[in-house]
Structure formats: C-alpha cells, structure tokens
C-alpha cells in the first residue's frame, strides 16, 4: 500500500493576497495576475475570411519569479454564437527585477515559441527569439505581442510572420478581469 500523499503545499495563486506571497520581481507584471475573459478579432492574408473569437486567459504564480500562463479561445459568429474551439496555449513567463521578460509558450499545433521582452508600467512588449516546430506544424517563423492594461481592460495585439508572409497582425483582443 502506498502512503497517503499530502495536498500540494504550493498551489498556484491567481489573486493578490491569497496563497504564496508574490515574488518581488513579479511586481511589474502584477496587473496581469488573475483570470481574464473577453473578445477578439483576427485575420491573415492567407485566410479567406476574418474571424471573431472569445478568450479566457489566466496568469498565476507559486511564489517564485515566474507566471504560469494559459489561454484558450473559441470562435464565435457575427451574432456571438459559439462556432468551435480555436487557439490554445500554455507557458511560463519569467520576469527579472528590472522588468526583463522571457516567455516560453507551447501550442497544440506543434509549435513552441520563446520570447524576450520588457514589462514597463502597464505595457508588455515581446518578440520571438526562436520558434520550434514539429514536422506537421504550419510554417510560423516569428511573432510579436503587446499586452496593455488600461482602466481594468487588457488589450492584446499579436503579430505573426507565417506561411511566407511578412510580420503583420493576426489577432487583437480586449479582456476584463473575472472574479475567481
Ligand atoms: C486567440 C488565438 C488564436 C485564434 C482565435 C486563431 C484563429 C485562427 C483561425 C480561425 C485560423 C484559420 C484556420 C482555422 O479556421 O483554424 C487561423 C490560422 C492560423 N493561425 Fe491562428 N489563431 C490564434 C492564435 C495563433 C497563434 C498563437 C499562432 C502562431 C503560433 C497562429 C498561427 C496561425 C497560422 C500559421 C494559421 C494558418 C494560416 C494558413 O493556413 O494560411 N494562430 N488562426
């Protein structure tokens, strides 16, 4: 018989003041903490049509100087009716005292991106250092992201260099913090 195992003593926290104390290096990224929910629009020159989506994003921490990140999106039509699941990604955002940021983001589409960027005030900018792809993945060669928190709203603009196209916008979304 196996000994009973205790509960994980280091659960992630998504709310400031609950769970482990926030690592001081994460202070610049503090506005991101929590669970966000909102809507976006996207398109790309290789696609026949633009699209709309809804998205939920969570940023949590376990007291160490990195954020656990997860984002899930699903397509909706013009009237807001749910169409099907879409982009999904998980990762780690590593932040230093100076607000330097390194992120690792993995996609179920066979792509892993590493980013470097900067957290300054309520704005985060990052660009890919590397994009690794499995043999079946689509050709993505680079990406840039900007996250801005203003008046309780998180705006995300994402540019993509893929399918032989130059870097240009694929996604823009606005989200609000959701109580957990
Ligand atoms: C909110 C997240 C995202 C949503 C809602 C989204 C949505 C879409 C949609 C609807 C398409 C058209 C094909 C289809 O119907 O599935 C598409 C294509 C594509 N997306 Fe995204 N996407 C997201 C994130 C990403 C990310 C993070 C990347 C890169 C890592 C990416 C790269 C691509 C590529 C390469 C294509 C294919 C273009 C082509 O086949 O010509 N997408 N996306």
Automatic annotation (TrEMBL):
Its cofactor is heme b. A motif (GXWXGXG) lies at residues 34-40. Residues 26-176 form the THAP4-like heme-binding domain. It comes from the Bacteria. Heme b binds at residues 46, 138, 170. It is an enzyme of class 5 (isomerase). It catalyses: peroxynitrite = nitrate. Its EC number is 5.99.-.-. InterPro entries: Calycin, Nb(III)_bact/plant, Nitrobindin, THAP4-like_heme-bd. Pathway: Nitrogen metabolism. Binds 1 heme b group per subunit, that coordinates a highly solvent-exposed Fe(III) atom. Keywords: Heme, Iron, Isomerase, Metal-binding. Belongs to the nitrobindin family. Heme-binding protein able to scavenge peroxynitrite and to protect free L-tyrosine against peroxynitrite-mediated nitration, by acting as a peroxynitrite isomerase that converts peroxynitrite to nitrate. Therefore, this protein likely plays a role in peroxynitrite sensing and in the detoxification of reactive nitrogen and oxygen species (RNS and ROS, respectively). Is able to bind nitric oxide (NO) in vitro, but may act as a sensor of peroxynitrite levels in vivo. Forms a 10-stranded antiparallel beta-barrel structure able to accommodate a hydrophobic ligand in its interior. In fact, this fold hosts the heme group, which is located in a wide surface cleft. This is Peroxynitrite isomerase.
